[in-house]
Structure formats: C-alpha cells, structure tokens
Amino acid sequence: MPEPAMTPEEQAAYAEALKRIIECGRKGETVLDLRDLGLTRVPPELGQLTALTELDLSQNQLTALPPEIGRLTALTKLDLSFWRFPWFQPILRPVGNRITTLPPEIVQLTALNELLLAGNQFTALSPEIIQLTTLTKLDLSDNCLTTVPPEIGKLTALTELNLCFNQLTTVPPELFLLTGLKELGLSGNQLTTLPPEIGRLTELRVLHLSGTRLITLPSAVGQLTALTVLSLSGNQLTALPPEIGQLTELAELYFCNNQLTSLPAKIGQLTKLTKFDLSGNQLTTLPPELGQLTALTELTLSNNQLTALPPDVFQLTGLTKLHVATNLLATLPPMIGQLKALWLLDLSGNKLTSLPSEFGQLTKLELVMLNDNQITTLPPEIGQLAAVTLLGLEDNQLTTLPAELGQLTALTGLFLANNRLTALPPDLNRLTALTGLYLSGNQFTTLPPEIFCLPALTKLSLAGSQLNTLPPEIVQLTALTELDLSRTKLTRLAPEIIQLRALTELKLSGNQLTMLPPELGQLNQLKRLHLSDNQLTALPPEIGQLTALSWLLLSDNQLTTLPPEIGRLTTLTELWLYNNRLVMLPPELGQLTHLEKLFLHGNLGLGLPPEVLGPTLEESFQDRPAAKPQDILDYYFARQRPGQ
User: Fold this and answer.
1) Which entry of 52, 82, 285, 383 is 20 to 30 Å from 344 by CA?
2) What is the DSSP letter of 548?
3) In angstroms, what CA-CA distances link 572 with 352, 545, 549, 590, 596?
4) Which residue(s) pair with 576 in the sheet?
5) CA atoms of 345 and 283, how far apart (whole Å)
6) For 467-483, what is each residue's pLDDT tens digit?
7) 11: which residues sit within 8 A by CB, 6+ positions away?
8) How many CB atoms within 10 Å of residue 631?
9) pTM (predicted TM-score)
10) Nearest to 139 by CA among 78, 207, 66, 92
11) What are the residues whose beta carbons fall under 8 Å from the beta carbon of 634, sequence distance 6 or more?
12) 386-424 burial string, b = 16+ CB within 10 Å, else e?
C-alpha cells in the first residue's frame, strides 16, 4: 500500500532529516540528532549510516520505523520517546510519536544498550524487544501496556527498567529474575499489591512505586538493602512494615499522599536519609526515633493532623527545609531555635497565635511562610532574620508590626494581606530591596507614607482597603509595574497616576469610579486594565492610546456606548463588557482581530440572543469554550445593515 502524501510541513521535516543524514555520513559522525523535527516518516537513507552509535528520533510524530533501521548494527542507543506534559500541552504538538510495534529488523541491533520508547502507544511488549539481550536500559513508560510477558526475564543485562504510567495490574514473577536491576519504575499503574519476589532485586538503588494503588507493602521490601531512593507517594498505604528500617542506605524516601496514621519505630534506623516526605497523610504524632535521622536536610510533614512537633524533631539540626503547613499546631516551642541551618520554613495553615523569641535565632532563614494562622503579634527578635528574602504573613490577625521588621533589609517579598493593620512602622522604609508588598484586606484609610520610600517596589496590592483617594506621593513609586487598588472605595482616579509609566497591570475593579481621567491614556505600557464593577458611564477617547493592552475588563458598569478609538487596541485578547447598558457597538470593534474572548451578556439593548453570545464568563471557566468574538460581531453588524 503506498504511503499517504505528506503535507508541506511534513515534507520540510523529511527534507531536513535527509539533509542531516547525508551530512552525518559525509563527516563520518557516529551520533545523529533528528529529534523534534515533526517527522512522520524516516528517510530509508538512514540505513547507510552503519557506523552510527547513537540515534535520537524523540519528540517527532512517527508511527513506524523503516526496515533499514536494522542495518545500524553498531547502534548502542536508540531514542524514540515522546515526553508529554499536560500542563504545557498548548505549546506542544497535538500528537507525538505513536509507534505501536517495532520492525522485525530491529533484532539485528545486537549492540543496542539503551532503547527509549516512552510516550508511544505500545499495548504489548514487542517480541523483538525480548531478543535484544544486550539491553541495559529499557524505557517503556507512558504507553498502553496492560501486561508484561514472562519473557521479560530474558533481558538479564538490564540495569534500568521503566514501566511507569501504563495500565498494568500485575507484573510477572519473571521480572524479579532481573537481579542486575539498579532502577525500576512502576509508578502510575494499578498494581494494588507487590509480590514477595520483589525482595530478589537486591541490587536496586532506585524504586518508583508512586500512584499504583498499593494498599500494603510486603515485608520483603526490607531485603532491598541497596536502595537509596524509594518513592511510594499517592498510594493507599495505612501502615509501613517494620522491615522498612532495614533499608539503611536510603537517602530519599517519599510517602506523601497515603493514609498513614503512624510510623514504625524502626524508621529511626534510616540514618542516611536526607529527604523524607510524609505530607498528605493522617499522622497525629511522630515517633521519638525520628530524632535519630540526623542526616536529614529536608523534612515534609504538611497536610497531616499534627497538634505539636515533638522535641525529637529539634534534634535534626542539619535541616535546611522544614514543611509543616496545614496541620493543627497551636504553639511553636522555643526549641525551634536549635534548627539553625534552616533556610526554608513553612508553617502556613496552622493555629499559631504567636512565635517564640527563639525564632530570631534562625538566622539562615531565607523563605518564611506563616500564612493562614492566628498570629496577633510578632516578636522583636524577628528583626534578627537578616537573610530573609520572602516573608509570608497573610491571613493572620496582626494589628501592628514591630519596628524591627525594618532590619530585614534583604527582603524582596512581604505578604501581609488580610490582617487588621491600620499603619506600618516607620522603619519599613529601610526595606530598599523590597519589590513586592501585599497589603490587601487590611484597614488602611490612607496610604502609609513608608511605602513611598521603597524605590525598588514593582508590585503593590492594597485591594480591600478604605482609601477613598490616592495621595500625590504615589508618583514616587516609579518602578511599579503592578498596582492593585480593587475594592478600595475610590471615587476618582487622580491624574498623578500617569506618572507611573512602568505600569503593566492596573486593577481598579469594585470601586465607585464614575469617570476616567484622559491622562490614563499615557500609561502606554499597560497590558491589563481592570475596571469592572464601577459606575462608569463613558470611556475617554484616550483609551485608544493604550495600544499594549491585552485585557480590558469593563463588566458591571453603566456604559451605553464605546468610543470609536477602542478599535486602536489591536492587541486585545479579552474584552469584558457584560452587564452594562450598551445599545450600540462601534464598527471599529471589527479591527480587534486578536480578540479571543468577548463577553457582552446582560446588554439587552444590543439585541444579541444567548445562542450568539455563547457561554457566560462563569460558564467559560467550566470548560465551556467562549463564543468566537468574530462570530458575535458579524451577527451584530449584519443586523445593522438596512433591511435586516
């Protein structure tokens, strides 16, 4: 059957691959990189490169390999993988390599050591793979395997086997005959249990079993005494066997997101542990033996039910990172001061009301998260934390701040939102490195003058305050790029704001603005302008000068018309106009060819039916795609023609 014709893009990819193959042969090179070209087929001329030792065909769109691949008998590494990252999917090609089988000729690659097939569509282990007995590394992760054949046991040279993210419910006993394995990946399958034969893999250094629905861990795991990394996160484990204590070479142990209620005392034998993650369990206490893990540098206990930290934790003086967020801690003992190596401490989401003075002894701290507690005061000793660059104190009950806060001259981010502050200490003006100051949800009635002495400030949030007006001194913040004045009871926007020429985002939603100053148009760096939920009846023509705008949010106002100048905002991608009083739209809206979202709901005077308007803003957040702006505008302007 003839192969389907290639698209121009596929032809260009093929031509580039052929060019590289010819160049590789001319230079006598042994490594060929054909990754990420968009290839749908491989030029058969590849078979002429008989000296090739490494071939990279990853990140393409292949469905098969040519039989000529079998001529590359010197090949030691073949990469056919396609790594898929769902969170980056919009910037990746919609499809990748989709290979389901390998050509029979692949068995001629008798020197092959590494075969990387991640992210393809293998539903079964190709018989040809079993014949590649020289393989030391085989990656079949992120395929569609439902079983692994017993013949896997023939690949006795394997040291690395990755079967993560398939659809396996069991693994054959023969897999555990691969006693030379040093790394084994089984994460993201549906195993529920592990056979006791796993204890045969005594050479294993790394074992990944996260997200496999395991309910229990066999005692045979204690025989894997060479393990240095063990990952069991995202399972349904309620307890750990005491044999876990036999894994004395472990350096990293991950048990997050299980259902553990306690830890065995034998855990204290893992004296080489440097990273230990127990977050997302149901722990209420910790065993005293935890204090024996003196090599620990990172300990994660977040999202448990701990009411206190036992004294033994404070023996872990080598800790550099301690995460205890979202527990039930009501107090922090003075012994916290013993953890002098800490540079990250996360105690967010607890019930702390105060900090001990010994907190100031943690002089290496750089990142401190104390958000979402019930802290009413800070000790003066907090000023001793001279290395802190980020301090999170949002959602507490602070009414004042100590003057010593001004000693934190390395601070770049200060988060104080949703407290009860009415003023800032004068010494705050010493924080000359501060770039982000977040004060929303406090009780300021005027802008604290200390703010105007922060020359590096680029982000300032005062949302939910009670300012009414902006003082002229705000013009001193010439480095500001983001200013949030939402819900601050502003009735007018001072013309002085135009001197904040660096602004890229200005949030003014939820105020009582009835008009905008024409000078606003001079903020030509603005990319996002939030004006929803005010009392605007018109926009100044100068709005058209904001040619860098990508977002213009004007919902819930009293606009009846839009100025023709809005058509100059040709970089707009989102325009929110719902719940106004619009009775007509200017033809210039048709010039906004980059619009991706246009919300006109609630403007009854426009006569646009719901089926044209499409999903509302709220509905569009629920995976319902918004209507195409061009379709809405075409319908509207078609109805404006005579006779329509």
Assistant:
1) 285
2) T
3) 45, 13, 6, 12, 8
4) 553, 599
5) 19
6) 878 888 888 999 999 99
7) none
8) 12
9) 0.90
10) 78
11) none
12) eebbbbbbbbbebeebbebbbbbeebbbbbbbbbebebb
